[in-house]
Amino acid sequence: MRTDPPAHTRVRNLVSRALSTAEVNKLEPQIHDIAKSLAAPWIGTGAVEFVGAFAALMPNAVTTAFIGAPAQMREQFRFWAAEVISRFTGPQPPERQLEVAHNIAAMGRYFLEQIAARRRQPASDLISLLAHAQVDGDRLEDVAIVNVIETFLIGGRETTTYLLGNSLYHLAQQPDIAALLRAEPERVRDFIEEMLRLEAPAQSVLRSPTRDVHIGGVTIPAGATLFVFLASANRDESQFDSPDTVKLDRFASRECRHVAFGYGSHACLGMHLARAEVRIALQTLLPRMHEIRLALLDPLSRVESWLLRGPSRLELRFLPS
Q: Could you give all domains of the chain from N- to C-terminal order, each with its CATH number?
């Protein structure tokens, strides 16, 4: 994420093969099983705090499976991801910095061992695909593979969690759309695209121009740090009719598209997996959850972030079936 072409192009070309639609499709049976197992403890009760009981668990479970690690590693991966993210949440005292560095080093050692094992004996997982990926004889170094896995480990965790939470929040308030998705489960794909546009879980990205740029009468100097607000672009009235409304047929035209996953050479490589996770989750849950409603008058506690948008808690009630 922190490099530009040509170095970025080389790594992206190699990594994109491991995160292709074809590779994600192979994982779909496991994603189905994960969704069912995570829902099993509460789907028959008619009540759930959705984020803690499902949305926060699903991406971690799927990521663990995609990486090729056993389910017992889910909590360890969650801990390591949290340690990496902690470096960007504010100043840390020296002793905490040292603790975080030790934990991240332990994560690196674990993945280096796994890479070595996959080079000896390949499997059908992300580490094997990265360890053996080639473009014109070019291969990724081990340290690059560790960096890619670290990015993958943290990149889709919170964003997919919030996309799931935002989706259930809207369905609880729009029962007609929930009913339509139950009757026509193939329309879940359209609903996901609208959720990505309307409630982009990643609201903005940091960018630095490589040269002076003139936009709207303002000069942005080379090297400046910009917050590029994807969320604003996704509600641009010149691009989207009634941008604050959910319209399932909005993307029938290929010319109409959102930028929730970014755009260009740094567009999110995990977009295929994120879409598959949320689609399978909704298609699994909606037939079992009827008359979904918000449990409290003020049920939504949003994550405190200038970057992310989604619920940190979401209390729901529903009729189980």
A: 7-200+268-304+313-320 (1.10.630.10)
Which of 206, 219, 214, 163 has its CA nearest to residue 188?
A: 163
3 state SS of 226: strand
Average pLDDT rounded to a whole number, residues 139-152: 88
What gap in Å lies between CA 36 and CA 33, rounded to an integer? Answer: 5
pLDDT digits (tens, 9 = 90+) for 282-313: 999 999 999 999 997 665 678 877 788 899 99
Asked if 215 and 222 count as a contact pair (C-beta separation under 8 A), the reply is no
User: In angstroms, rounded to a whole number, what is the distance separating the alpha carbons of residues 59 and 47?
Assistant: 21
Residue-level length of the chain: 321
Residues 92, 96, 101, CA angle at the centre, nearest 5°? 105
- Torsion angles phi and psi, residue 169, rounded to 5: -60, -45
- Would you call the peptide bond into 70 cis, given omega within 30 degrees of 0 as the criterion? no
- Render pLDDT for 242-259 as a digit per residue (tens, 0 to 9): 999 999 999 887 777 899
pLDDT tens digits for range 175-194: 999 999 999 999 999 999 99
218 φ, ψ (degrees, to nearest 5): -115, 135
Backbone angles phi, psi at 23, to 5 degrees: -70, -40
Contact 168, 311 (CB under 8 A): no
Q: Do 173 and 104 touch, CB atoms closer than 8 A?
A: no
Spatial separation of the C-alpha atoms in residues 196 and 215, rounded to whole Å: 26
Q: Cα angle at 45 between 286 and 56, to 5 degrees?
A: 60
Is 14:139 a contact under the CB 8 Å cutoff?
A: yes
Q: Is the pTM of this model over 0.85?
A: yes
Residue 219 contacts by C-beta under 8 Å, 6 or more apart in sequence?
212, 213
Q: What's the whole-number mean pLDDT along residues 48-56? A: 96
